[in-house]
Protein backbone atom coordinates (compact mmCIF):
# COMPACT_ATOMS: atom_id res chain seq x y z
CA UNK A 1 0.00 0.00 0.00
CA UNK A 2 1.09 3.56 -0.62
CA UNK A 3 1.78 5.78 2.34
CA UNK A 4 0.03 8.46 0.34
CA UNK A 5 -1.96 7.52 -2.75
CA UNK A 6 -0.28 8.28 -6.04
CA UNK A 7 -2.37 11.24 -6.67
CA UNK A 8 -1.91 12.46 -10.10
CA UNK A 9 -5.16 11.27 -11.37
CA UNK A 10 -5.58 10.93 -15.09
CA UNK A 11 -8.41 13.12 -15.69
CA UNK A 12 -8.49 12.77 -19.39
CA UNK A 13 -6.06 11.76 -22.02
CA UNK A 14 -6.09 13.96 -25.07
CA UNK A 15 -4.34 12.48 -28.14
CA UNK A 16 -3.32 14.04 -31.50
CA UNK A 17 -0.87 12.74 -34.17
CA UNK A 18 -2.88 11.83 -36.98
CA UNK A 19 -5.11 12.75 -34.06
CA UNK A 20 -4.97 14.98 -30.97
CA UNK A 21 -6.02 13.20 -27.79
CA UNK A 22 -6.34 13.92 -24.10
CA UNK A 23 -6.43 11.89 -20.89
CA UNK A 24 -8.15 12.66 -17.66
CA UNK A 25 -6.09 12.47 -14.50
CA UNK A 26 -7.27 13.10 -10.97
CA UNK A 27 -5.05 15.80 -9.60
CA UNK A 28 -4.60 14.50 -6.13
CA UNK A 29 -1.80 14.76 -3.73
CA UNK A 30 0.95 12.63 -5.10
CA UNK A 31 0.75 10.32 -8.08
CA UNK A 32 -1.51 10.46 -11.06
CA UNK A 33 -4.39 8.18 -10.86
CA UNK A 34 -7.03 8.29 -13.50
CA UNK A 35 -10.54 7.18 -13.73
CA UNK A 36 -8.59 4.11 -14.68
CA UNK A 37 -4.92 3.24 -14.94
CA UNK A 38 -2.99 1.10 -12.49
CA UNK A 39 0.09 1.35 -10.30
CA UNK A 40 3.13 -0.90 -10.61
CA UNK A 41 6.67 -0.82 -9.28
CA UNK A 42 9.38 0.67 -11.48
CA UNK A 43 11.24 -2.65 -11.59
CA UNK A 44 8.21 -4.55 -12.91
CA UNK A 45 9.05 -6.56 -16.04
CA UNK A 46 5.43 -7.00 -17.16
CA UNK A 47 4.76 -6.31 -20.85
CA UNK A 48 1.31 -5.44 -22.20
CA UNK A 49 0.39 -6.40 -25.80
CA UNK A 50 0.50 -3.44 -28.12
CA UNK A 51 -2.77 -2.48 -29.82
CA UNK A 52 -3.00 -2.72 -33.59
CA UNK A 53 -4.59 -0.06 -35.79
CA UNK A 54 -7.71 -2.26 -36.01
CA UNK A 55 -7.88 -2.55 -32.22
CA UNK A 56 -7.68 1.23 -31.89
CA UNK A 57 -10.33 1.93 -34.50
CA UNK A 58 -12.71 -0.36 -32.63
CA UNK A 59 -12.88 1.94 -29.56
CA UNK A 60 -11.83 5.38 -30.84
CA UNK A 61 -14.72 7.71 -31.81
CA UNK A 62 -14.68 10.34 -34.54
CA UNK A 63 -14.44 13.00 -31.83
CA UNK A 64 -15.17 13.30 -28.11
CA UNK A 65 -15.03 11.12 -25.01
CA UNK A 66 -14.15 7.41 -24.94
CA UNK A 67 -12.62 4.81 -22.63
CA UNK A 68 -9.36 2.95 -23.19
CA UNK A 69 -9.75 -0.85 -23.06
CA UNK A 70 -8.51 -3.02 -20.20
CA UNK A 71 -6.22 -3.07 -18.41
CA UNK A 72 -6.15 0.76 -18.50
CA UNK A 73 -9.84 1.81 -18.47
CA UNK A 74 -8.71 5.45 -18.56
CA UNK A 75 -11.03 8.15 -19.87
CA UNK A 76 -9.91 9.82 -23.07
CA UNK A 77 -11.04 12.58 -25.41
CA UNK A 78 -10.42 12.65 -29.14
CA UNK A 79 -10.00 16.28 -30.21
CA UNK A 80 -9.23 16.09 -33.93
CA UNK A 81 -9.97 13.89 -36.91
CA UNK A 82 -9.37 13.85 -40.65
CA UNK A 83 -11.86 16.64 -41.34
CA UNK A 84 -9.57 19.12 -39.56
CA UNK A 85 -6.76 18.74 -42.10
CA UNK A 86 -6.06 19.07 -45.79
CA UNK A 87 -3.07 16.73 -45.70
CA UNK A 88 -2.06 13.64 -43.74
CA UNK A 89 0.14 13.85 -40.65
CA UNK A 90 -0.81 17.49 -40.22
CA UNK A 91 -0.76 18.19 -36.46
CA UNK A 92 2.47 20.10 -35.83
CA UNK A 93 1.84 21.45 -32.31
CA UNK A 94 -0.69 21.41 -29.49
CA UNK A 95 -1.24 23.20 -26.18
CA UNK A 96 -3.80 23.59 -23.37
CA UNK A 97 -4.73 26.78 -21.54
CA UNK A 98 -5.07 27.38 -17.80
CA UNK A 99 -8.71 26.29 -17.42
CA UNK A 100 -8.69 26.07 -13.63
CA UNK A 101 -12.14 26.95 -12.20
CA UNK A 102 -13.53 27.26 -15.73
CA UNK A 103 -16.01 25.08 -17.53
CA UNK A 104 -14.22 25.31 -20.87
CA UNK A 105 -10.70 24.24 -21.77
CA UNK A 106 -9.06 25.92 -24.78
CA UNK A 107 -6.66 23.94 -26.98
CA UNK A 108 -4.59 25.34 -29.81
CA UNK A 109 -3.60 22.99 -32.62
CA UNK A 110 -1.05 23.70 -35.34
CA UNK A 111 -2.29 22.15 -38.60
CA UNK A 112 0.06 21.77 -41.54
CA UNK A 113 -1.61 23.16 -44.66
CA UNK A 114 -4.25 24.92 -42.57
CA UNK A 115 -2.46 26.97 -39.91
CA UNK A 116 -3.00 27.29 -36.15
CA UNK A 117 -6.57 26.71 -34.99
CA UNK A 118 -8.46 26.86 -31.70
CA UNK A 119 -10.59 24.12 -30.13
CA UNK A 120 -12.79 24.22 -27.04
CA UNK A 121 -13.64 21.34 -24.72
CA UNK A 122 -16.58 21.71 -22.34
CA UNK A 123 -15.72 19.78 -19.18
CA UNK A 124 -19.39 19.50 -18.18
CA UNK A 125 -21.09 18.55 -21.44
CA UNK A 126 -17.89 16.81 -22.69
CA UNK A 127 -18.35 18.38 -26.11
CA UNK A 128 -15.46 19.33 -28.43
CA UNK A 129 -15.98 22.40 -30.62
CA UNK A 130 -13.88 23.85 -33.43
CA UNK A 131 -13.56 27.62 -32.94
CA UNK A 132 -11.71 28.23 -36.20
CA UNK A 133 -8.35 29.78 -37.17
CA UNK A 134 -6.39 31.57 -34.47
CA UNK A 135 -5.37 34.42 -36.79
CA UNK A 136 -6.82 36.43 -39.64
CA UNK A 137 -5.45 35.45 -43.08
CA UNK A 138 -3.46 38.71 -43.22
CA UNK A 139 -1.49 37.90 -40.05
CA UNK A 140 2.13 36.72 -40.41
CA UNK A 141 1.19 33.91 -38.01
CA UNK A 142 -1.77 32.68 -40.09
CA UNK A 143 0.23 29.91 -41.80
CA UNK A 144 2.57 29.13 -38.89
CA UNK A 145 3.11 25.59 -37.62
CA UNK A 146 2.77 26.83 -34.04
CA UNK A 147 5.83 24.89 -32.90
CA UNK A 148 7.28 26.29 -29.71
CA UNK A 149 4.06 28.14 -28.82
CA UNK A 150 2.54 27.69 -25.37
CA UNK A 151 -0.28 29.02 -23.22
CA UNK A 152 0.41 31.16 -20.18
CA UNK A 153 0.29 29.18 -16.93
CA UNK A 154 -1.72 32.02 -15.36
CA UNK A 155 -3.68 33.97 -17.99
CA UNK A 156 -6.41 31.71 -19.41
CA UNK A 157 -6.54 33.23 -22.90
CA UNK A 158 -2.89 34.27 -23.42
CA UNK A 159 -0.77 32.29 -25.88
CA UNK A 160 2.98 32.94 -26.32
CA UNK A 161 3.92 33.01 -29.98
CA UNK A 162 7.07 33.63 -31.99
CA UNK A 163 8.29 33.27 -35.55
CA UNK A 164 11.53 31.41 -36.39
CA UNK A 165 12.80 34.46 -38.29
CA UNK A 166 11.90 36.99 -35.58
CA UNK A 167 13.73 38.36 -32.51
CA UNK A 168 10.42 38.96 -30.72
CA UNK A 169 8.40 36.99 -28.20
CA UNK A 170 4.75 38.03 -28.33
CA UNK A 171 1.65 37.31 -26.28
CA UNK A 172 -1.64 36.76 -28.08
CA UNK A 173 -5.14 36.84 -26.61
CA UNK A 174 -6.84 33.96 -28.42
CA UNK A 175 -10.35 35.30 -27.74
CA UNK A 176 -9.74 39.05 -27.86
CA UNK A 177 -7.40 38.51 -30.86
CA UNK A 178 -4.95 41.18 -29.65
CA UNK A 179 -1.16 40.90 -29.81
CA UNK A 180 1.47 42.47 -27.54
CA UNK A 181 5.25 42.26 -27.66
CA UNK A 182 6.84 40.82 -24.53
CA UNK A 183 10.41 41.59 -25.64
CA UNK A 184 12.41 42.31 -28.77
CA UNK A 185 15.90 40.80 -28.57
CA UNK A 186 17.10 43.10 -31.39
CA UNK A 187 16.91 46.06 -29.00
CA UNK A 188 19.53 44.47 -26.75
CA UNK A 189 21.52 42.29 -29.13
CA UNK A 190 21.25 44.12 -32.45
CA UNK A 191 19.92 43.14 -35.85
CA UNK A 192 20.70 39.79 -37.45
CA UNK A 193 19.49 37.89 -34.40
CA UNK A 194 16.46 35.64 -33.87
CA UNK A 195 15.11 33.72 -30.88
CA UNK A 196 13.86 30.18 -30.45
CA UNK A 197 12.68 27.70 -27.80
CA UNK A 198 11.09 30.32 -25.51
CA UNK A 199 9.80 29.54 -22.02
CA UNK A 200 8.09 31.64 -19.35
CA UNK A 201 7.79 31.49 -15.58
CA UNK A 202 4.39 30.58 -14.19
CA UNK A 203 3.73 34.21 -13.19
CA UNK A 204 4.51 35.47 -16.73
CA UNK A 205 7.25 37.79 -15.48
CA UNK A 206 10.50 36.06 -16.48
CA UNK A 207 11.13 34.62 -19.93
CA UNK A 208 13.98 32.72 -21.56
CA UNK A 209 14.97 31.92 -25.14
CA UNK A 210 17.86 30.72 -27.26
CA UNK A 211 19.57 33.55 -29.18
CA UNK A 212 20.50 32.62 -32.73
CA UNK A 213 22.38 34.13 -35.62
CA UNK A 214 19.80 34.89 -38.32
CA UNK A 215 22.13 34.09 -41.23
CA UNK A 216 23.66 30.80 -40.06
CA UNK A 217 21.12 29.64 -37.48
CA UNK A 218 23.96 29.10 -34.99
CA UNK A 219 22.90 29.07 -31.34
CA UNK A 220 24.87 31.86 -29.71
CA UNK A 221 23.66 31.69 -26.14
CA UNK A 222 20.69 31.97 -23.81
CA UNK A 223 18.86 35.09 -22.75
CA UNK A 224 16.55 35.78 -19.84
CA UNK A 225 14.20 38.74 -19.74
CA UNK A 226 12.54 40.16 -16.62
CA UNK A 227 9.37 41.83 -17.78
CA UNK A 228 8.65 44.06 -14.77
CA UNK A 229 12.17 45.50 -14.87
CA UNK A 230 12.48 45.37 -18.68
CA UNK A 231 15.91 43.86 -18.17
CA UNK A 232 17.86 41.28 -20.18
CA UNK A 233 20.58 38.95 -18.94
CA UNK A 234 22.69 36.87 -21.29
CA UNK A 235 24.76 33.69 -21.04
CA UNK A 236 26.91 32.86 -24.10
CA UNK A 237 27.27 29.28 -25.24
CA UNK A 238 30.31 27.49 -23.81
CA UNK A 239 30.17 24.59 -26.25
CA UNK A 240 27.55 22.97 -28.44
CA UNK A 241 24.43 24.68 -27.08
CA UNK A 242 21.08 22.89 -27.21
CA UNK A 243 18.54 25.05 -25.39
CA UNK A 244 17.64 26.77 -22.15
CA UNK A 245 14.59 26.93 -19.91
CA UNK A 246 13.49 29.23 -17.10
CA UNK A 247 12.08 27.37 -14.12
CA UNK A 248 8.49 27.83 -12.96
CA UNK A 249 9.52 30.33 -10.26
CA UNK A 250 11.46 32.57 -12.66
CA UNK A 251 14.61 32.52 -10.53
CA UNK A 252 16.63 29.71 -12.12
CA UNK A 253 17.79 29.41 -15.72
CA UNK A 254 18.70 25.89 -16.86
CA UNK A 255 20.98 25.64 -19.91
CA UNK A 256 21.71 22.43 -21.83
CA UNK A 257 25.20 22.95 -23.19
CA UNK A 258 28.27 20.80 -23.89
CA UNK A 259 30.67 22.49 -21.53
CA UNK A 260 33.58 20.04 -21.46
CA UNK A 261 33.23 18.21 -24.80
CA UNK A 262 33.48 14.83 -23.07
CA UNK A 263 30.16 13.20 -22.19
CA UNK A 264 27.68 14.95 -24.43
CA UNK A 265 25.47 17.67 -23.03
CA UNK A 266 25.94 19.08 -19.55
CA UNK A 267 23.56 21.21 -17.50
CA UNK A 268 24.35 24.78 -16.48
CA UNK A 269 22.22 26.16 -13.63
CA UNK A 270 22.13 29.94 -13.21
CA UNK A 271 20.68 31.78 -10.21
CA UNK A 272 19.26 34.92 -11.83
CA UNK A 273 19.02 36.65 -8.43
CA UNK A 274 22.76 36.44 -7.81
CA UNK A 275 24.25 35.60 -11.22
CA UNK A 276 25.97 32.53 -9.74
CA UNK A 277 26.33 29.57 -12.08
CA UNK A 278 26.94 25.89 -11.42
CA UNK A 279 27.59 23.08 -13.90
CA UNK A 280 26.22 19.55 -13.60
CA UNK A 281 28.40 17.52 -15.95
CA UNK A 282 26.91 14.81 -18.13
CA UNK A 283 28.88 12.09 -16.39
CA UNK A 284 27.49 13.32 -13.05
CA UNK A 285 23.86 13.19 -14.19
CA UNK A 286 23.46 16.38 -16.23
CA UNK A 287 22.59 17.03 -19.85
CA UNK A 288 19.48 14.86 -20.18
CA UNK A 289 15.96 15.77 -21.25
CA UNK A 290 14.26 17.74 -18.50
CA UNK A 291 11.39 19.81 -17.24
CA UNK A 292 11.45 22.20 -14.31
CA UNK A 293 9.39 22.92 -11.23
CA UNK A 294 9.76 25.63 -8.60
CA UNK A 295 13.48 25.60 -7.85
CA UNK A 296 14.14 22.08 -9.17
CA UNK A 297 14.28 20.01 -12.33
CA UNK A 298 13.37 16.45 -13.29
CA UNK A 299 16.00 15.20 -15.73
CA UNK A 300 17.19 12.05 -17.44
CA UNK A 301 20.51 10.73 -16.15
CA UNK A 302 22.25 8.92 -19.01
CA UNK A 303 25.14 7.73 -16.81
CA UNK A 304 23.17 6.32 -13.89
CA UNK A 305 23.63 2.71 -12.79
CA UNK A 306 19.86 2.30 -12.98
CA UNK A 307 18.44 1.95 -16.49
CA UNK A 308 16.47 4.90 -17.83
CA UNK A 309 16.92 6.84 -14.58
CA UNK A 310 15.16 10.16 -14.00
CA UNK A 311 16.33 12.30 -11.10
CA UNK A 312 15.00 15.34 -9.27
CA UNK A 313 17.62 18.00 -8.60
CA UNK A 314 16.93 20.81 -6.11
CA UNK A 315 18.79 23.96 -7.15
CA UNK A 316 19.12 25.03 -3.51
CA UNK A 317 21.28 22.01 -2.67
CA UNK A 318 25.04 22.44 -2.51
CA UNK A 319 26.45 20.12 -3.60
CA UNK A 320 23.70 18.95 -5.93
CA UNK A 321 22.33 15.53 -4.94
CA UNK A 322 19.67 14.25 -7.33
CA UNK A 323 17.08 11.70 -6.16
CA UNK A 324 16.12 8.91 -8.57
CA UNK A 325 12.33 9.16 -8.97
CA UNK A 326 11.87 6.80 -11.91
CA UNK A 327 13.82 4.07 -13.68
CA UNK A 328 13.19 1.29 -16.18
CA UNK A 329 13.19 -2.36 -15.17
CA UNK A 330 16.24 -3.22 -17.29
CA UNK A 331 18.61 -1.82 -19.89
CA UNK A 332 17.73 -1.98 -23.56
CA UNK A 333 14.40 -0.11 -23.42
CA UNK A 334 13.71 3.15 -25.27
CA UNK A 335 13.12 5.15 -22.09
CA UNK A 336 10.03 7.20 -21.27
CA UNK A 337 10.77 10.12 -23.58
CA UNK A 338 10.09 13.80 -22.95
CA UNK A 339 9.12 14.71 -19.38
CA UNK A 340 6.21 17.02 -18.58
CA UNK A 341 5.64 18.78 -15.25
CA UNK A 342 3.42 21.78 -16.07
CA UNK A 343 1.42 20.90 -12.94
CA UNK A 344 4.22 21.96 -10.54
CA UNK A 345 2.92 23.59 -7.34
CA UNK A 346 4.93 26.15 -5.36
CA UNK A 347 5.66 25.12 -1.78
CA UNK A 348 4.23 21.61 -2.15
CA UNK A 349 6.50 18.74 -1.00
CA UNK A 350 7.99 16.76 -3.85
CA UNK A 351 6.43 13.61 -2.41
CA UNK A 352 3.04 15.18 -3.21
CA UNK A 353 3.88 16.08 -6.82
CA UNK A 354 4.29 14.10 -10.01
CA UNK A 355 5.38 14.24 -13.62
CA UNK A 356 4.42 12.21 -16.68
CA UNK A 357 6.03 11.00 -19.91
CA UNK A 358 5.43 8.73 -22.86
CA UNK A 359 7.22 7.74 -26.07
CA UNK A 360 6.80 5.47 -29.08
CA UNK A 361 9.24 2.69 -29.90
CA UNK A 362 9.35 -0.52 -31.97
CA UNK A 363 10.94 -2.28 -28.98
CA UNK A 364 8.95 -4.79 -26.94
CA UNK A 365 9.77 -3.96 -23.34
CA UNK A 366 8.12 -3.09 -20.05
CA UNK A 367 6.17 0.19 -20.28
CA UNK A 368 7.22 0.72 -23.89
CA UNK A 369 4.63 2.70 -25.88
CA UNK A 370 2.78 3.64 -22.70
CA UNK A 371 2.04 6.92 -20.94
CA UNK A 372 3.33 6.80 -17.39
CA UNK A 373 3.31 9.12 -14.39
CA UNK A 374 5.50 8.98 -11.32
CA UNK A 375 5.73 10.70 -7.96
CA UNK A 376 8.77 12.90 -7.32
CA UNK A 377 10.20 10.78 -4.54
CA UNK A 378 12.03 7.47 -4.21
CA UNK A 379 8.91 5.32 -3.77
CA UNK A 380 9.54 3.58 -7.10
CA UNK A 381 5.82 3.58 -7.93
CA UNK A 382 4.57 4.23 -11.46
CA UNK A 383 1.06 4.95 -12.71
CA UNK A 384 0.54 3.31 -16.10
CA UNK A 385 -2.14 5.37 -17.82
CA UNK A 386 -2.65 4.24 -21.44
CA UNK A 387 -0.87 3.36 -24.67
CA UNK A 388 0.42 6.15 -26.93
CA UNK A 389 -1.04 4.39 -30.01
CA UNK A 390 1.77 5.52 -32.33
CA UNK A 391 3.56 3.46 -34.97
CA UNK A 392 6.91 5.00 -35.91
CA UNK A 393 7.10 2.83 -39.02
CA UNK A 394 3.78 4.01 -40.43
CA UNK A 395 3.59 5.92 -43.70
CA UNK A 396 2.94 9.61 -43.66
CA UNK A 397 4.33 13.03 -44.35
CA UNK A 398 6.87 13.36 -41.55
CA UNK A 399 10.11 11.68 -40.52
CA UNK A 400 10.20 8.84 -38.01
CA UNK A 401 11.42 10.97 -35.09
CA UNK A 402 8.76 13.57 -35.88
CA UNK A 403 6.08 10.99 -35.12
CA UNK A 404 6.99 10.91 -31.43
CA UNK A 405 3.90 11.73 -29.36
CA UNK A 406 5.53 14.29 -27.09
CA UNK A 407 2.85 14.87 -24.47
CA UNK A 408 2.09 17.52 -21.91
CA UNK A 409 0.27 17.88 -18.62
CA UNK A 410 -1.96 20.87 -18.04
CA UNK A 411 -1.47 23.22 -15.07
CA UNK A 412 -4.05 21.38 -12.97
CA UNK A 413 -2.43 17.99 -13.48
CA UNK A 414 -5.84 16.67 -14.45
CA UNK A 415 -5.31 16.34 -18.21
CA UNK A 416 -2.54 14.92 -20.38
CA UNK A 417 -2.48 16.02 -24.03
CA UNK A 418 -0.61 14.21 -26.80
CA UNK A 419 -0.62 13.24 -30.46
CA UNK A 420 -1.07 9.85 -32.10
CA UNK A 421 -1.20 8.29 -35.57
CA UNK A 422 -3.55 5.70 -34.09
CA UNK A 423 -1.41 2.68 -34.67
CA UNK A 424 -0.08 3.60 -38.09
CA UNK A 425 -2.88 4.12 -40.55
CA UNK A 426 -0.59 6.51 -42.43
CA UNK A 427 -2.19 8.74 -45.06
CA UNK A 428 -5.54 7.05 -44.62
CA UNK A 429 -5.63 7.70 -40.88
CA UNK A 430 -8.17 9.84 -39.19
CA UNK A 431 -5.88 11.93 -37.12
CA UNK A 432 -2.93 14.19 -37.23
CA UNK A 433 0.77 13.78 -36.84
CA UNK A 434 2.69 15.92 -34.48
CA UNK A 435 6.31 16.83 -35.06
CA UNK A 436 8.73 16.65 -32.23
CA UNK A 437 9.43 20.09 -30.79
CA UNK A 438 12.72 19.01 -29.23
CA UNK A 439 15.83 20.18 -31.06
CA UNK A 440 17.89 17.52 -32.83
CA UNK A 441 20.88 16.09 -31.04
CA UNK A 442 24.32 16.73 -32.54
CA UNK A 443 25.59 14.06 -34.95
CA UNK A 444 26.60 10.88 -33.16
CA UNK A 445 30.09 11.12 -34.58
CA UNK A 446 30.62 14.17 -32.40
CA UNK A 447 29.33 12.55 -29.22
CA UNK A 448 30.85 9.97 -26.96
CA UNK A 449 28.46 7.45 -25.51
CA UNK A 450 28.59 7.07 -21.72
CA UNK A 451 30.18 3.87 -20.48
CA UNK A 452 27.79 1.08 -19.63
CA UNK A 453 27.83 -0.79 -16.35
CA UNK A 454 29.88 -3.97 -16.41
CA UNK A 455 26.79 -6.09 -15.90
CA UNK A 456 23.16 -5.29 -16.48
CA UNK A 457 19.97 -7.28 -16.19
CA UNK A 458 18.56 -8.47 -19.48
CA UNK A 459 14.92 -8.54 -20.44
CA UNK A 460 13.35 -11.75 -19.24
CA UNK A 461 11.72 -13.88 -21.89
CA UNK A 462 8.70 -14.89 -19.85
CA UNK A 463 5.95 -12.52 -18.79
CA UNK A 464 5.01 -12.86 -15.14
CA UNK A 465 1.32 -12.69 -14.17
CA UNK A 466 0.14 -9.13 -13.67
CA UNK A 467 -1.52 -8.15 -10.40
CA UNK A 468 -4.09 -5.49 -11.30
CA UNK A 469 -4.48 -3.16 -8.33
CA UNK A 470 -7.78 -1.41 -7.82
CA UNK A 471 -7.81 2.19 -9.06
CA UNK A 472 -7.55 4.83 -6.37
CA UNK A 473 -10.67 7.00 -6.74
CA UNK A 474 -9.92 10.70 -6.90
CA UNK A 475 -11.72 13.80 -8.00
CA UNK A 476 -10.22 16.41 -10.30
CA UNK A 477 -11.44 19.95 -10.43
Q: What this model shows, in words?
A:
This protein is an all-beta fold and about 475 residues long. The chain has a single domain (about 10-415), classed as 7 Propeller (Methylamine Dehydrogenase, Chain H). Helices cover about 5% and strands about 35% of the residues. It has helices at about 55-60, 185-190, and strands at about 10-15, 20-25, 40, 65, 75-80, 90-95, 105-110, 115-120, 130-135, 150, 160, 170-175, 180-185, 195-200, 205-215, 220-225, 230-235, 240-245, 250-255, 265-270, 275-280, 290, 295-300, 310-315, 325, 340, 355-360, 370-375, 380-385, 410, 415-420. β1 (about 10-15) and β2 form a beta hairpin. The longest helix is centred in the N-terminal third of the chain and has 7 residues, at about 55-60. The protein is globular, with a radius of gyration of 21 Å.
Task: Report a brief summary of the structure.
3% of the residues lie in helices and 36% in strands.
Amino acid sequence: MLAAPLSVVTRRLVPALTTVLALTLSAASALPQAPGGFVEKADSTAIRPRWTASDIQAFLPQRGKFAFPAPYATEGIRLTNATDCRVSDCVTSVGMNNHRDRQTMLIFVGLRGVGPALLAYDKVTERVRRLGPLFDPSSPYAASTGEGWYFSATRPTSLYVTDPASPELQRYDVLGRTLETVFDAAIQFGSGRTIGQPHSSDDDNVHSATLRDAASGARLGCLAYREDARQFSYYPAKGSLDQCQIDKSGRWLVIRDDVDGIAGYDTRIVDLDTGAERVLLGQKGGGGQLDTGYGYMIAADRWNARPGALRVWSFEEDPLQGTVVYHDAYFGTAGVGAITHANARPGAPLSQQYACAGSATPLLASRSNEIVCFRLDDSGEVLVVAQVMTDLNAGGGVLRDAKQPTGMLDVTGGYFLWTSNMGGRGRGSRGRSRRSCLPPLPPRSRRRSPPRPASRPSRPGARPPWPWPSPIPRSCR
